[in-house]
UniProtKB/TrEMBL annotation:
Keyword hit for Glycoprotein: no
Source organism, top-level taxon: Bacteria
Lineage, broadest ranks: Bacteria, Bacillati, Bacillota, Clostridia, Lachnospirales
Protein name, as recorded: N-acetylmuramoyl-L-alanine amidase family protein
Protein source organism: Candidatus Enterocloster faecavium
Keyword Repeat: yes
Signal peptide annotation: 1-29
InterPro entries per UniProt: Cell_wall/Cho-bd_repeat (IPR018337)
Pfam families: Choline_bind_3
Keywords: Repeat, Signal
Length: 255
């Protein structure tokens, strides 16, 4: 659906040391409901492609809901308050591994200063290349890819399990939510939250704004144009609209 976009290096500081922690002990199954997406930060982290979640061990004491993503997935920052100074925010890319001997945290990179409108990689391209070469990138239960966000005294983490892009339709096809309409528009409620950005629902692609409402008509995303049906909102493919040819991936040839 989305054309491949690769990312230039943007890290302000790269740390290669590995911090060794004591043995994490037995994971607490009672904590399996801890939500990866619950945040106390004054801004919101929005995955550009919505995805199902998978409980994974966070390396310390509990299970958390990790987002299933591919090596191509990205996210962006949303904020509805002008009081938020994103130049003071930072995020740490971490890889957490654990076994019988304990837990290790590799701090891959720290990014200082976040920006509205920028699409950040969920897993750094350098990390993807290294882990793929080692055969440890996909679906390993003893590894958790983590992004830790920092703002003032607040700190929140999101957890990810990486699966192949070729299997994306299996873990990004959301079929258990429900549509809701109000005086403003249409939203889709999934796992207790309204979807934002792209979502594959019952085999059809839809695009939601950062306010959670369904978008329609022509929409530009990462430099490409897409047409979303004026009635249903579904992404149109393999057709011609307003004189523009739209391919199988939904991208319109408007050059």
């Amino acid at each position: 659906m989305i054309r491949k976009h690769w990312f230039s290096r943007f890290c302000s500081l790269a740390l290669t040391g590995i911090l060794s922690l004591g043995c994490a002990g037995t994971a607490l199954a009672s904590d399996a409901g801890a939500a990866a997406g619950s945040q106390d930060l004054p801004f919101e982290v929005v995955l550009d492609l919505n995805t199902r979640q998978q409980p994974v061990y966070d390396g310390f004491s509990q299970y958390v809901n990790a987002f299933r993503v591919s090596e191509e997935d990205t996210f962006h920052i949303a904020s509805d308050s002008s009081d938020v100074d994103l130049s003071q925010a930072s995020m740490d890319y971490l890889v957490i591994t654990y076994d019988e001997e304990g837990t290790q945290i590799s701090q891959e990179c720290t990014v200082y200063g976040l920006e509205i409108g920028t699409h950040y990689p969920v897993v750094r391209p350098e990390t993807v290349s290294r882990e793929k070469a080692a055969g440890t990138l996909y679906g390993t239960l003893d590894r958790c890819y983590t992004i830790r966000f920092n703002y003032g005294d607040e700190q929140e983490s999101l957890y990810f399990q990486v699966l192949p892009q070729s299997e994306a339709a299996q873990y990004k096809n959301l079929i258990l939510g429900k549509w809701e309409k109000d005086s403003t528009g249409t939203r889709y409620l999934y796992n207790g939250q309204y979807l934002k950005s792209w979502a594959l629902i019952n085999g059809q692609w839809y695009l939601f704004g950062d306010d959670g409402y369904l978008l329609r008509n022509w929409q530009q995303y990462k430099g490409d144009w897409y047409y979303l049906d004026r009635s249903s909102g579904r992404m149109m493919v393999n057709c011609t609209i307003d004189g523009y040819e739209i391919g199988e991936d939904g991208i319109a040839d408007r050059e």
